Amino acid sequence: MPRRLDKSEVDTELKRLDGWKKEGRFITKTYEFEEFMDGIAFIGEVARVAEEQEHHPDIHLRYTKVTLALQTHSAGGVTAWDFGLATAIEKVARAGVRPTKRRTRSR
Question: What's the predicted TM-score (pTM) here?
Answer without folding.
Answer: 0.88
